[in-house]
Specification:
The structure holds three protein chains of three kinds. By secondary structure, chain A is mainly alpha-helical. Chain A has eleven helices and no strands. Chain A has helices spanning about 10-15, 25-35, 35-60, 90-125, 130-145, 145-180, 185-200, 205-210, 215-250, 265-270, 280-305. In chain A, helix 4 (about 90-125) packs antiparallel against helix 9, helix 7 (about 185-200) runs antiparallel to helix 9 and helix 9 (about 215-250) packs parallel to helix 10 (about 265-270). The model of chain A has no long low-confidence stretch (mean pLDDT about 80). Chain B is an alpha+beta fold. Chain B has helices at about 5-15, 20-30, 35-45, 85-95, 150-160, 170, 210-215, 275-280, 295-305, 350-360, 360-370, 400-405, 435-450, 460-465, 495-500, 525-535, 540-555; strands at about 65-70, 100, 110, 130-135, 175-180, 185-190, 235-240, 245-250, 265-270, 290, 310-315, 320-325, 410, 420, 425, 425-430, 455-460, 485-490, 560-565, 570-575, 575, 595. Helices cover about 75% and strands about 0% of the residues of chain C. Chain C is built from 13 helices and no strands. Chain C is globular, with a radius of gyration of 24 Å. Classes of the chains: A mainly alpha, B alpha+beta, C mainly alpha. Chains A and C meet through helix 5, helix 6, helix 7, helix 9 and helix 10 of A and helix 1, helix 6, helix 7, helix 8 and helix 10 of C.
């Protein structure tokens, strides 16, 4: 039965001697990941998406803002594999260009939120004195802050310094990633803390402690791998949310300029034409969905690969 | 178009050779307003100031069921003297009425006035220093008390008191109202005032009852219970109000015009966006009327196909303009950008400005974005060719623009962008967040690329762009970039305040906290002189000629590039009969609305 | 437990004060001017705007304004809206019923769907049921509510003409009122509820999966307990910890409303009040709503912490 520890390992070992494979925890994890078929397939799909976005514009050389009133809202054809929008601009080119930003923003913002959230949640979950409540107060504070005035303030204060340091697009990118990631770490922190509160009392942690494991080792080697369940779910949800949040920011004038065709922005522009040009919304929606799907299965695979209790 | 030309046109109207409508359309094309145009005709005896009555079919009051209207920006308060924006004015207009309202051709429609004052009935003084209004007898407030001259005089005291902080103060602080008798009020001006129809007229002229507000004027104005429970003279009585969401009224059975109103109740629902409002009227028929549809015409046409509703337009003087900065927004002088002490490095060259004006493809903007709701050329009906003014003649010509720039010494560099003396033609072009505007920007950007001009597009959230925040460089008065675009509204019936944007003493600077009206910072001595002359001019024709001169100077020097005229767009149920006027509130004629059987 | 609760409640007061200071400062510093619209109106002279600013105390230093707000709040005066010139508590109370009804029902719907579906999916991981529900969940939270809302409107209001899509005050009574109210609420409730259900289902499934493979479940089964008892008494209770965390995080949103859904269906809820106050820079309204929201956040997270102790007796909160 899954999760059960066999009574005796010697039962297996006594079979014919096998070649000894090189062993290391990471290699082991990689092997287990590979065996999770869906996760492996998803990783390949994601890689394909990233490659096509990175290299696509060199192969498909149609301009993203070539306005052509004669070819408005055309369904997919050989000239325009994804069709065109209401200004006659080619959707495939726009999707490839915008995909860079959407994927980069989605993955980075998710990474920021996960890292900050896990770190704070772990610290709060392990502490027994004032650090926990202090961090939870910080979490409550961020949960209460109204997003929009905060965004306006941050952008107003930091836009010019960031622009000067990283250039127009770089500055906006960093600002968006920090702002979106910075407002989505709180649920992760609370979920991780809840997991830690329950896990730190379990016997296997006590055993590790008895064996002399430092707190850091307890956390990283024993508790964290088991606490990752909600983090993975949050990660998949956050990628989609981050891509959409970027488009909301652009709609409010706080993100990338409105002529940059990120996936969320294309979806937003397409929503009023759902009944005459459904292809316009179909492609960005499918792209976001596919990203979410792949991240999820990769996450599942990662969790199963890293989980010491799971026997594959 | 000078004074002679104008008098010639007016003579044509009088002789019947030119229709009044064509004359008014022409004046609008020159940058004037219909009320001013009508005033010119009235003064010359070519027309009457009083509007024609509205055709009205129902023969009894009530029985029409509910009238459901949708304002996608909901009314947030119901006291007309505090109104910010048309949503509040429209919400108040359901319950309150002014003495007279502006009809679609600039004539006046009497409501609480018995008739429109003019020179013949001695309503207007010959020296231009007073107007005498005769009030309608027998009008009652919703609570039964009689409407008298005391109420009118009270409104003047209430609005002109700075402690009340009324937003209508501009119309009342320079006049004095006195009671002549219970049904007559005289409005006095301290100098001859050509445009007398401001106080008590239109959206800033709604009358509130003295007996409910007298205790609450000045500093206590915010405490009046009638602020939230309006008692007016209008066709509907107050039922309920949720700020930003909904206003409801029921039929006023003692309304002072017979057989009106037709509907038993009215609802003004707020919230959401323009396009779903259009759907609610045109596709599902859930609502009878939707206000201010800033939606691409193509979508509107598609929605109209269902046959449940139709889109209607009301001419206004609103023009979507691109402004060109005369100063340098990228150099800071004493903590101020776009300061009068600087000159724009590239836009101060007239060749560049002229090239830009040739690169705005207004036809595409009209055809593919605004459709009926944005008209690239002036709205002429019968246009005698000898009277065409340069500012109504436009062209989209990329080759010509290229030629002008070549001749001006602007050579294309290695990156395809033109430069001269080390200065490149790179501009930041900003506007508010609004899908049609963003599309407009994309079209201009592409055309400019073909001429070797690089444009960076920027869109600012509307609540910031249109604010007066002193510290924020993204607001439109700060003009922190090279080009900006928005609609300059002309809901003031008199163009004088509108033309303040071209005079030198109105330049927005740090000193006046960017509250000046001249945003482009363009200055011209001739324009200044013409404006000063117009302020003192009593003859409306001479005055109009001076206004046209100022407008022509600004447009021909390319201080601004007009893009499209923006009429007001609304959707209504096919059976609903509404008379539209772009110079007053949507509800200016609410009492005459009805549904065909 | 009682002492812990008391201690937490006492700490909640200064923590809320701290949050209110930061909220107030953010709002005071954020760009935007409540009387901005007046600025674009040439008929309004600057003196009027200045008079209004002085009247509402907008030019005083931030510290002074904060204490004025705090003292007023303690007296029950929640402030006066710049935009609407009425008391903020009246505004909020007007909007509360619609918010609680629509958003509350949506959250309830989400939970009613997510709990059973998530548990069932975890019981048979990678089965057909699990794959279908997971895919639907992914579609659910990949598509933003502005999109699904519009899709619902296109299908149910425009194509089929079954349901109205503008939320209004219904002037009818009794049975007819109920029918009309349901007809106009069902779409927003479903749009919001399904969006929430999508993410919550994933969390429930993940939490259940974590627990279902543990030893004590095997032990329980080995002891011969029926599957139903095993699931309900052992699995669900322990899997509930992340779920409780999540529900506690979502509860304050019932008060805060759902901005996008309210905009699309024109529901007069607190979410749309908040967004229009933010866009109009109507600070008293924003402050009042966010402060109540903050109180709810602190309260529900406190309840969650207490519940952890009850769900898993080994948890000590220090």
């Amino acid at each position: 039965m899954d999760g059960s520890i066999l009574a005796s390992r010697s039962a297996e070992v006594s079979a014919a001697p096998r070649k000894v494979r090189p062993f290391s925890p990471w290699l082991d994890a990689w092997r287990r990941f590979r065996r999770h078929r869906l996760a492996f397939a998803s990783a390949i799909v994601l890689l394909i998406m990233i490659l096509s976005i990175a290299l696509g514009p060199f192969i498909w050389r149609v301009a993203i803002n070539d306005i052509d009133f004669a070819a408005r809202m055309e369904p997919p054809s050989w000239a325009h594999p994804f069709g065109t929008d209401d200004l006659g601009q080619d959707l495939l080119a726009r999707m490839l260009y915008g995909g860079r930003i959407s994927l980069a923003v989605g993955l980075s913002a998710m990474a920021v939120a996960m890292t900050v959230g896990t770190a704070i949640g772990a610290a709060a979950g392990m502490s027994r004195r004032w650090v926990g409540p202090a961090l939870m107060w910080l979490t409550d504070l961020f949960l209460s802050l109204p997003a929009l005035p905060l965004l306006l303030l941050v952008i107003y204060l930091f836009r010019d310094t960031l622009k000067a340091a990283f250039g127009v697009e770089g500055g906006v990118f960093i600002m968006i990633v920090i702002v979106i990631g910075g407002l989505r770490w709180m649920p992760v922190a609370r979920l991780v803390r809840a997991q830690f509160l329950s896990l730190r009392e379990k016997e296997f942690v006590e055993a590790a402690r008895a064996l002399g494991a430092s707190k850091r080792r307890q956390v990283i080697r024993h508790i964290l791998p088991n606490a990752l369940g909600p983090v993975i779910v949050a990660a998949t949800i956050d990628v989609a949310a981050a891509i959409i949040a970027e488009s909301t920011l652009s709609f409010l004038g706080l993100g990338f300029p409105p002529d940059i065709p990120t996936w969320g922005r294309i979806l937003y522009d397409a929503k009023d034409y759902l009944d005459i040009a459904p292809h316009w919304a179909l492609f960005p929606g499918a792209a976001i969905f596919l990203t979410v799907l792949t991240i999820n299965f990769i996450g599942d695979g990662l969790r199963d690969a890293l989980d010491p209790r799971k026997v594959m | 178009m000078d004074e002679q030309g104008l008098r010639g046109l007016i003579a044509d109207v009088k002789a019947g050779k030119l229709s009044r409508r064509a004359f008014i359309n022409q004046m609008i094309a020159y940058g004037l307003t219909a009320p001013l145009a009508m005033q010119m005709l009235v003064y010359s005896g070519a027309a009457h100031a009083q509007a024609k009555p509205t055709p009205y079919k129902p023969t009894k009051r009530g029985g029409g069921g509910p009238l459901k209207t949708l304002w996608w920006q909901g009314a947030t308060l119901l006291n007309p003297h505090f109104a910010v924006g048309t949503k509040d004015q429209d919400g108040s207009r359901i319950f309150y009425e002014p003495l007279a309202a502006w009809a679609e051709d600039g004539s006046l429609y009497p409501l609480l006035a018995a008739e429109i004052p003019d020179l013949e009935n001695n309503g207007l003084a010959k020296d231009g220093k007073s107007v005498t209004w005769k009030l309608k007898p027998g009008v009652k407030w919703h609570d039964g008390k009689p409407f008298t001259a005391d109420d009118v005089v009270f409104n003047w005291q209430y609005a002109s008191d700075p402690a009340t902080a009324a937003t209508t103060i501009g119309s009342y602080k320079d006049v004095k109202a006195e009671k002549v008798d219970d049904l007559t009020v005289r409005v006095l001006f301290d100098k001859p005032t050509p445009f007398w129809a401001d106080a008590f007229v239109g959206v800033r002229g709604m009358i509130i009852p003295k007996h409910l507000f007298a205790e609450y004027s000045g500093g206590k104005s915010r405490d009046a219970p009638a602020n939230l429970k309006p008692v007016g003279t209008g066709p509907y009585k107050f039922v309920d109000f949720k700020p930003g969401d909904m206003v409801r009224g029921e039929i006023n059975n003692d309304y002072h015009i017979a057989n009106r109103p037709y509907f038993d109740s009215i609802e003004m629902k707020g919230g959401g966006d323009a396009i779903s409002a259009a759907r609610a009227v045109l596709q599902t028929g859930e609502f009878d009327y939707a206000w201010n549809l800033q939606v691409e015409d193509e979508i509107l046409l598609r929605l109209e196909k269902g046959g449940k509703g139709k889109v209607s337009l009301a001419e206004t003087g609103n023009i979507e303009h691109i402004q060109l900065n005369s100063t340098d927004p990228w150099t800071e002088v004493d903590g101020e950008r776009s300061s009068m002490k600087t000159k724009h490095p590239t836009l101060s060259d007239k060749a560049v400005r002229e090239a830009l004006s040739l690169l705005v493809d207004k036809k595409s903007v009209q055809d593919h974005i605004y459709g009926r709701t944005g008209i690239a050329t002036a709205n002429f009906v019968n246009n005698p060719p000898k009277f065409v003014s340069k500012n109504t003649h436009w062209e989209f010509n990329v080759d010509k623009a290229n030629k002008i720039l070549d001749e001006g010494g602007w050579k294309k560099g290695a990156d395809g962008i033109r430069e001269k003396d080390g200065k490149k033609l790179k501009f930041v072009y900003q506007t508010s967040i609004n899908t049609p505007r963003q599309k407009n920007q994309a079209i201009v950007k592409q055309a400019c690329q073909k001429a070797g001009i690089d444009i960076e597009v920027k869109a600012v959230t509307a609540s910031v762009f249109f604010s007066s925040d002193v510290a924020n460089w993204d607001t439109y008065p700060h003009f922190g970039c090279d080009l900006q675009m928005y609609t300059t509204t002309m809901t003031q019936p008199d163009p004088e305040t509108f033309l303040l944007q071209f005079v030198s003493w109105e330049v927005a600077t740090k000193e006046n906290k960017w509250q000046g009206r001249n945003i482009t910072r363009w200055t011209n001595k001739e324009a200044d002189d013409a404006f000063k002359a117009a302020q003192a001019e009593l003859d409306p024709v001479k005055r109009a000629a001076l206004f046209i001169k100022i407008n022509d100077l600004a447009v021909n020097d390319h201080a601004v590039i007009p893009v499209v005229y923006r009429p007001r767009v609304q959707a209504q149920n096919t059976k609903l009969a509404v008379r539209h006027s772009g110079w007053d509130s949507d509800f200016w004629n609410l009492q005459d609305w009805y549904k065909e059987a | 437990m009682g002492r812990y609760l008391l201690k937490r409640l006492l700490i909640a007061i200064p923590s809320l004060l701290g949050i209110s200071v930061i909220l107030f400062t953010v709002l005071a510093l954020a760009p935007g001017d409540p009387f901005g619209e007046l600025a674009t109106n040439p008929a309004v002279p600057p003196e009027v705007r200045d008079a209004l600013r002085i009247k509402f105390g907008l030019d005083d230093p931030v510290v002074v304004r904060y204490f004025r707000w705090l003292i007023a709040m303690l007296h029950g005066d929640w402030g006066f809206s710049f935009a609407s010139r009425i008391d903020v508590d009246t505004l909020i109370l007007q909007r509360l019923p619609a918010t609680l009804f629509v958003i509350g029902s949506a959250q309830l719907l989400a939970l009613l769907i997510a709990l059973p579906v998530g548990v069932l999916a975890a019981m048979r991981p990678y089965s057909i049921f699990d794959q279908i529900t997971s895919t639907l969940a992914f579609v659910g939270f990949s598509l933003p509510t502005f999109f699904t809302g519009l899709l619902f409107i296109l299908i149910f209001s425009i194509q089929l003409d079954w349901l109205p899509f503008v939320f209004r005050d219904i002037d009818a009574t009794g049975w007819q009122w109920l029918v009309e109210e349901l007809k106009q609420s069902i779409m927003p409730i479903c749009v919001l509820g399904l969006f929430q259900a999508a993410s919550t289902t994933r969390y429930v499934r993940s939490a259940t999966l974590d627990v279902i493979r543990l030893d004590y479940v095997t032990t329980a089964r080995a002891k011969g307990l029926g599957e139903r008892v095993v699931i309900i008494k052992h699995v669900v209770r322990n899997a509930l910890i992340p779920v409780v965390t999540l529900v506690a995080l979502q509860m304050p949103a019932i008060f805060g409303g759902a901005i996008v859904t309210e905009q699309i269906f024109r529901i007069p809820g607190i979410g749309s009040l908040l967004i229009s106050a933010i866009l109009a820079n109507d600070t008293p309204v924003i402050m009042a709503v966010t402060f109540v929201f903050a109180c709810l956040v602190v309260l529900f997270n406190l309840i969650a912490d207490v519940l952890y102790g009850w769900l898993d007796p080994r948890i000590t909160l220090g």
